[in-house]
C-alpha cells in the first residue's frame, strides 16, 4: 500500500462499512466492477458477522496497476455509510494517520478503533444528500465519492452500476446514477493523495471472479461432470456456480440431504465412470472421513473441496482460517495415502482444482483441495488465466480382460479400472483388504502388497514444478501455503526495496510430500520463517514431521479472522535476525 508522498501510487486500499441493508458489499462490488473494466487489478474481501441474514458488513478493496492477492497493511480510505456495530470488526479495519475516514454525522459515531487511530476524519451528510434523489441511497453517494477519489471517471461508475442493476429496472438504475453523480461532485474538493493513474486500454480485458467461481470453473475444465453437496458457508457459492454450468457440458449437480450422502454419491458416480466432486467446509469434511477411507481402499477417484473457516465446531463460519490442515493430511484411520492440494490465490483456485481433478483421475485416488474463506469468497480482477491441458483421464479396463485383476500390482501402481457392466471385468469394490482381483482377504501379504501399491503410485508420480511456488533468491526464506502466498510475495517485494533478498516457498501439493524438491528449493537458505493462519502452528509441525531443514524454523502463526499482512511478515523476518 502506498502513502501520499507526491508520487503517483500504484495501489489504493478502500473499505466501506455499514449495517444490514446499508449496501456496503454492493458498493464494494460495483467499485471493483468499474475498476476491472478500467483495466485495474483488484481484490475485494468481505467481513461480516455470523448472522444468517443482515447484520453489519464491510467490503475491503485493494486496487492497483499490478496483481493484488493479499490484505492491505493499512487503509487509505474508509467510508462509513453508517457506523452501526462497526466496532465488531475490531482490528480488521486497519486505519492510521494516513487514512482518510468519511462518515455521516447523523446517527452513530465512528467506533474508537477509528477515532483513536489518528486518522483524518471528515463528516459528510450521506443520508441527507441521498434524499435529493427519489429512491436515492447513501451507499451510491459513497460509491461516487470513492470512485472519484481513487481516479475513476463518472462514466465508468455509472456503466458499472447499470450492469450490476440490469435486472432491477430503469428507475433503480437512474436513481443510483443520480446518487453516484452527487457523490462524485462532492469529492471534488477533498484532498486525497492516493489517486490512481488508470492504465492504457488493453485488448485482453480483466477477468472478474471469486475464488469459489474459479474453483467451479477449474473443476469443469478438469473434467468433473457430477457434483453432489450439502450447502455450507463459505463453500456454497461453488455449488451455486456449478449447478447451471455443469448442465451446459452435459453434467449434473445434486443437492444431497447431508455431507455423508454427498460424499457417498460422488464415490458411486465415480465408480460408474463419471469424474465427480463435492464442496464443503470443515464440519462437512469431518463427516466425510470414513467415506474417504473407502475411496482410498477401493481406489475410486473423487475430489473434495474444503473451503476452510474458523473452527472448531461451528466456529466462525464467515471468517477465514487454515486449521483444517491436520484433518486433511492425517484424518483417515489406517495408512490411507491420498492427495491434498492448496490453491494460492483467487486465480490459482482454477488451476489447482483442475490439476487436482487430473491427479485424482490419473492416480485413482481421493484429492482434497484446501481453499479458504479469504480466497473463496473474495472477488478479484485478474489477467485471463492460461488454458491448461490438464483433463482427468483414468486408465479404463477393456472388455474381455480375463482374468481381470482390478487391483493388479502393475508398474506405477495404477491398474485399469472397469466401468460397471464391462464384459469379463466384474469385481468387488469395497473397504475390505483385498487381493489383486478384489476378493476380500485378511492375509498379511495381500494387505502389505495393496498398501505398498496405493503408496507407491502417489509417491512415485512426477508432479513437475507445479508442486510448489518457488520465487526469489537470497538467504532468507518465507515458507507458507494457501492464501498467505500473496502476502509472502508482497513481503519479499518490500524487503527487496530495503536491500534484503528473500525467497518464497509455498507448496501447492501438501500430500504426498516432496522432500527432494523442498531440499533443492532451500539450497543456500540460512533463515526460514514459517507463516500460517492457525493457532496451533499446524503447518509448522507438518513441515517438521515430513521435511529436513538446514536451519531452525521461526514461526509466525495466528488464527483467524485477522489476516496476516506483508508488513507483519517483514517485521517478523527482520526481528528474527
Task: Characterise this structure.
With 577 residues, the protein is of the alpha/beta class. It folds into 3 domains: 11-189, Pyruvate-ferredoxin Oxidoreductase, domain 3; 208-382, Rossmann fold (3-Layer(aba) Sandwich); 464-575, Rossmann fold (3-Layer(aba) Sandwich), CATH 3.40.50. Helices cover 35% and strands 18% of the residues. The chain has 18 helices and 20 strands. An 8-stranded mixed β-sheet has the order 6-5-4-1-3-2-14-7. A 7-stranded mixed β-sheet has the order 9-8-10-11-13-12-18, sandwiched between helices. The protein is globular and about 85 Å long. The relative contact order is 0.10.
Amount of helix: 25-40%
CATH topology of the largest domain: Pyruvate-ferredoxin Oxidoreductase, domain 3
The largest β sheet comes out as: 8 strands, mixed
The number of distinct structural domains comes to: 3
In the CATH hierarchy, what is the class of the largest domain?
Answer: Alpha Beta
Give the integer mean of the pLDDT values: 93
Order of strands, widest sheet: 6-5-4-1-3-2-14-7
Give me the number of helical elements: 18
Work out the number of β strands: 20
Alpha-carbon distance between the two ends: 25 Å
Report a brief summary of the structure.
The chain contains 18 helices and 20 strands. It has 577 residues and is of the alpha/beta class. The protein has three domains: 11-189, Pyruvate-ferredoxin oxidoreductase, PFOR, domain III (Pyruvate-ferredoxin Oxidoreductase, domain 3), CATH 3.40.920; 208-382, Rossmann fold (3-Layer(aba) Sandwich), CATH 3.40.50.970; 464-575, Rossmann fold (3-Layer(aba) Sandwich).
Amino acid at each position: 500500500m502506498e502513502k501520499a508522498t507526491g508520487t503517483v501510487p500504484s495501489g489504493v486500499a478502500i473499505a466501506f462499512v455499514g449495517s444490514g441493508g446499508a449496501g456496503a458489499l454492493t458498493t464494494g462490488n460495483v467499485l471493483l466492477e468499474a475498476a476491472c473494466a478500467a483495466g485495474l487489478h483488484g481484490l475485494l474481501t468481505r467481513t461480516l458477522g455470523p448472522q444468517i441474514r443482515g447484520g453489519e458488513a464491510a467490503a475491503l478493496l485493494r486496487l492497483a496497476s499490478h496483481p493484488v492477492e493479499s490484505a492491505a497493511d493499512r487503509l487509505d480510505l474508509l467510508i462509513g455509510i453508517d457506523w452501526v456495530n462497526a466496532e465488531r470488526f475490531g482490528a480488521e479495519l486497519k486505519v492510521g494517520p494516513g487514512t482518510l475516514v468519511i462518515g455521516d454525522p447523523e446517527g452513530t459515531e465512528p467506533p474508537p478503533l477509528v477515532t483513536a487511530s489518528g486518522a483524518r476524519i471528515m463528516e459528510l451528510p450521506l443520508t441527507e444528500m441521498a434524499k435529493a434523489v427519489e429512491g436515492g441511497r447513501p451507499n451510491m453517494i459513497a460509491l461516487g465519492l470513492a470512485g472519484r477519489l481513487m481516479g475513476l471517471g463518472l462514466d465508468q461508475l455509472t456503466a458499472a452500476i447499470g450492469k450490476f442493476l440490469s435486472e432491477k429496472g430503469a428507475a433503480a438504475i437512474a436513481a443510483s446514477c443520480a446518487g453516484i453523480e452527487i457523490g462524485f461532485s462532492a469529492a471534488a474538493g477533498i484532498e486525497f493523495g492516493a489517486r490512481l493513474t488508470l492504465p492504457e486500454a488493453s485488448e485482453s480485458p480483466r477477468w472478474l471472479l471469486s475464488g469459489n467461481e474459479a474453483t467451479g470453473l477449474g473443476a469443469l475444465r478438469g473434467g468433473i461432470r457430477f457434483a453432489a453437496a450439502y450447502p455450507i458457508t463459505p463453500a456454497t457459492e461453488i455449488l451455486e456456480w456449478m449447478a447451471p454450468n455443469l448442465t451446459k457440458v452435459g453434467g449434473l449437480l445434486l443437492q444431497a440431504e447431508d455431507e455423508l450422502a454427498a460424499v457417498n454419491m460422488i464415490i458411486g458416480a465415480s465408480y460408474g465412470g463419471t469424474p465427480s466432486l463435492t464442496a464443503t467446509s470443515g464440519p462437512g469434511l469431518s463427516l466425510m472421513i470414513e467415506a474417504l477411507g473407502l475411496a482410498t481402499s477401493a481406489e475410486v477417484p473423487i475430489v473434495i473441496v474444503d473451503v476452510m473457516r474458523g473452527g472448531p465446531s461451528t466456529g466462525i463460519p464467515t471468517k477465514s482460517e487454515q486449521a483444517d490442515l491436520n484433518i486433511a493430511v492425517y484424518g483417515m484411520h489406517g495408512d490411507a495415502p491420498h492427495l491434498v492440494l492448496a490453491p494460492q490465490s483467487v486465480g490459482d483456485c482454477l488451476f489447482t482444482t483442475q490439476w487436482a481433478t487430473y491427479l485424482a483421475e490419473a492416480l485413482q485416488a481421493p484429492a482434497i483441495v484446501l481453499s479458504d474463506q479469504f480466497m473463496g469468497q473474495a472477488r478479484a480482477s485478474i489477467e485471463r488465466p492460461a488454458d491448461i491441458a490438464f483433463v482427468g483421464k483414468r486408465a479404463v479396463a477393456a472388455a474381455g480382460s480375463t482374468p481381470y485383476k482390478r487391483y493388479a500390482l502393475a508398474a506405477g501402481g495404477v491398474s485399469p479400472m472397469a466401468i460397471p457392466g464391462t464384459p469379463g471385468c466384474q469385481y468387488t469394490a469395497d473397504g475390505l483388504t483385498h487381493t489383486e482381483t478384489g476378493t476380500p482377504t485378511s492375509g498379511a501379504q495381500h494387505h502389505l502388497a495393496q498398501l505398498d501399491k496405493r503408496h507407491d503410485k502417489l509417491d512415485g508420480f512426477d508432479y513437475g514444478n507445479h508442486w510448489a511456488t518457488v520465487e526469489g533468491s537470497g538467504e532468507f526464506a518465507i515458507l507458507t501455503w494457501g492464501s498467505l502466498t500473496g502476502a509472502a510475495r508482497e513481503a519479499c517485494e518490500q524487503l527487496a526495496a530495503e536491500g534484503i533478498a528473500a525467497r518464497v516457498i509455498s507448496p501447492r501439493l501438501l500430500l504426498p510430500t516432496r522432500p527432494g524438491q523442498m531440499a533443492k528449493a532451500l539450497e543456500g537458505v540460512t533463515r526460514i520463517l514459517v507463516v500460517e493462519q492457525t493457532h496451533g502452528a499446524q503447518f509448522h509441525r507438518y513441515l517438521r514431521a515430513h521435511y529436513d531443514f538446514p536451519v531452525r524454523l521461526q514461526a509466525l502463526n495466528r488464527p483467524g479472522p485477522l489476516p496476516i499482512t506483508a508488513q507483519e511478515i517483514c517485521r517478523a523476518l527482520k526481528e528474527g535476525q
